[in-house]
């Protein structure tokens, strides 16, 4: 075999999160794009769903000059596509597909998927249909492009992310055998479901049968398309060792390559700009907290935060609240602590009483009603965060040295209270905590350390395992990242260790804190895409060699 890796002339990469900011996959693709765009200018093309309809997509810039002649062919093929650029570093070409017209052919598409690849769509419901119609239309789009512009002399990769792209990967496998296919599962659908249903995932992983659990949890169709795509793709990948174990046990397929999630720090402020951003963030965080709480917390306050999707158990939000409550009862705590939960919930509106106090630029020392939350929710009584705070008697009383505030909105810069973006506010935290139970990789801790903010995570997160592997043993907070050992059953021990770490960090000298922040930044540099892209090159090589054999 030639020792030199085969590299594609064109890459088509599809995901539900192209130009659609839903979760971590958006960050994976959008931060990696510039690295590939620099290497293969405009020959990396992203394909996402056109779910914006009449609304303007804030992440997409349409350009009718791109492939203008081919657009006529696409319409004749029954495809409705908007072509332009993804508004991210590198501004790669993006194509957004309107997949709604394919619902009329749904039964025929599913029948062919069963006949060709044994994908069981008979139990489909909810988002399975939407995702599958998008996946199929994305496959047709690449087929049309290939037949118009390319031929067997080109090395071409089709890369699908998550089960939502499975039918597209399989379609390409069937109709264009000269294209190498890569399929990445960022989290197995059944593994996430097991964890989300409060079942112990890790101790019983070897005993679980993926097909059986799919039946029990009503996940047959998602599990089926994921399993069959993993089986038939030329190169099957995932993002961490911990998820590779899931794939082996639940999908009955070992991954070919692990693709750890890198980061592009080009937008992270450096030097004095970072210092300035940190001051502005802390000022705003303390202004909002003091307005809500009726307090006068100063800049010596230890600001702690967690963030991510509202997966109460999987993301460890419950453990975070428990740890903050433990810290509240710690006699040795000398500093005031402001703890934040920045997790989007079912927001109704920003609180008018809070915005009024902020506009007045002073408070009268009286806390507002329900001083635990910055925005009104549609169902305050049944919210899990507020419910757990009530059960632990966490009402942010004046005498509490530790205050916990729920920020349940997307921090896009126009939330009505903070009016600063997530990344702008991130710099204001002294330390971030991500005590995940189910976390295939974990972008939030990687983002934190890229902004020189030390963090705490667990060894059930792919990022936590990677950090430990870099050190060769368990990381401590002095390393910039503290990795806590977590199992199915040691909830209280994890919360207690987080509490102890926060107490320790609160007593560090300025020089010790500076060293922690410096080590956090150093570790983040090891996770840049410039270091991790080599894993993708390996995956492309595997897929292209298999496609070459078929040619």
How do you describe this structure in short?
The chain has 551 residues and is of the alpha/beta class.
Outline the fold blueprint.
Elements: E1 10-14, H1 24-39, E2 44-49, E3 60-62, H2 68-76, E4 80-86, E5 93-98, H3 106-117, H4 127-149, E6 156-161, H5 166-175, E7 180-185, H6 189-196, H7 210-216, H8 220-232, E8 235-238, H9 241-250, E9 257-258, H10 271-293, E10 302-307, H11 317-328, E11 337-342, E12 347-350, H12 352-360, E13 375-377, H13 384-391, E14 402-407, H14 422-426, E15 431-433, H15 443-450, E16 455-458, H16 462-471, E17 481-484, H17 491-506, H18 510-525, H19 529-550
Helix pairs in contact: 4-5, 5-8, 7-8, 11-17, 15-18
Please explain how this structure is put together.
It is built from 19 helices and 17 strands. The protein is an alpha/beta fold and 551 residues long. The strands form 3 sheets. It has a 9-stranded mixed β-sheet with strand order 3-4-5-2-1-6-7-8-9, with helices on both faces. A 6-stranded parallel β-sheet has the order 14-11-10-15-16-17, with helices on both faces. α11 links the parallel β10 and β11 (337-342). The chain is globular, with a radius of gyration of 24 Å. 51% of the residues are buried. The mean pLDDT is 96.
How large is the count of helical segments?
19
Straight-line N-to-C gap:
17 Å
Average residue-wise pLDDT: 96
List the strand order in the largest sheet: 3-4-5-2-1-6-7-8-9
- Helix/sheet category: alpha/beta
Whole-number radius of gyration?
Answer: 24 Å
